[in-house]
Amino acid sequence: MRIVNLTKDSQKNILEGMLKRSPNNYGSYEAVVGEILKNVKENGDKALFDYTKRFDKFDLNSENIRVTQEEIDSAYSKVSDELLKVIRKSLVNIEEYHQRQKQNSWFNSTEDGTILGQKVTPLERVGVYVPGGKAVYPSSVLMNIMPAKVAGVPRIIMTTPCNSEGEVNPSVLVAAKEAGVSEVYKVGGAQAIGALAYGTESIKKVDKIVGPGNIYVALAKKAVYGHVNIDSIAGPSEILIIADETANPKFVAADLLSQAEHDELASAILITTSRDFAEKVSARVDKFVSVLSRKEIMTKSLDNFGYILVADTMEDAIETANEIASEHLEIQTADPFLVMTKIKNAGAIFLGSYSCESLGDYFAGPNHVLPTNGTAKFFSPLSVDDFVKKSSIIYYSKDALKGVYKDVAMFARCESLTAHENAALVRFEEE
Description:
- The chain is α/β, with parallel strands linked by helices.
- It contains 18 helices and 14 strands.
- It has helices spanning 8-19, 30-43, 45-56, 69-78, 81-99, 138-151, 170-179, 189-198, 215-224, 249-260, 275-291, 295-305, 314-324, 336-340, 357-362, 398-402, 405-414, 418-425, and strands spanning 3-5, 106-109, 114-122, 125-129, 155-159, 183-185, 208-210, 229-230, 238-243, 267-272, 306-310, 328-332, 348-351, 388-396.
- A six-stranded parallel sheet has the order 1-11-10-9-12-13, with helices on both faces. Strands 6-5-4-7-8 form a five-stranded parallel sheet, with helices on both faces.
- β9 (238-243), α10 and β10 (267-272) form a beta-alpha-beta unit.
- α2 crosses α3 and α10 (249-260) packs across α11.
- The radius of gyration is 25 Å and the shape is globular.
């Protein structure tokens, strides 16, 4: 890996380079996505069947678009008992973590006759998109479905592409069933997002769409936002590690590559205060790359977006980490908890040498659907909050309104909204 001294200029160059990976910069694809969405909106199932034939080489129709119970049973027979046990153990951790995020409706009353509150209601129908391209991600199935289930969403609809035989990956189906999916449909790509957003003869419109996907899926989600809600427009994976000379270079190198293997646009950055440590990590990265699979992907990722930055001080390292606002942030220092208190921007924070990023991806419990491309400055991980809506509750008795109606009327007059003013005054005109 390249080793660079951390300066204001190098920080600026890295930030500019990373932002180029954002889906917001792929305008050349928008016209294609727009045409697909328009076709789905106007032609419904027919468009889905045509695109599936073209892209996935399968003759989809109204009889086979939905995954049957027989297909799910078959999937269970193809998944090992060991993997099923791990999926179930992981689900326990994910559910327990997300249960702590639940918010209840609340009400507060006063002696003068007012009641104010907030009513929390789960969304009615949620769509979960699961990709089926370069890799298979049953872990993302768990992470997207379980918080919706904990929130109390009654209908969770999953779409995922099938192969040319009309089959969905068995581990994906098993994970979906274990997490509590309601329906699964064999549709992928931007056309699946269109089906979930607008509805077709086979797939009913949802209220929100969540889940990762390629650039076409990301841009489709962006385009349908407003017709439905979405979780985010996810960019390529990224990891940033803050480490000092007390860290284990082998662990750090392994964790950098755990994200670099996702795709060629993934970013892996180490910031350290030790030049000697930087060189040890670089050497370890080279050794791992030479023996691990997905070598070509990792090499391109590191060549394009991989850096080892040598900082003068830990404060400089922390400042840069906050500017980058990485999806995954590992802190492997002598006192990781102290460093953590100074971190403002990160999707998920992993503390210490034994909290590897892959632990968060699969098993620990916190959600692995995280903000990317610097959006951790204002976005949060997927959570139970993403699957509920909140309504304000307002009640005033006559006596309570009598004490403030003139204030309300004055505000309305200030804004020249006479009907607003009248609505307050009319209730006491006889007095």
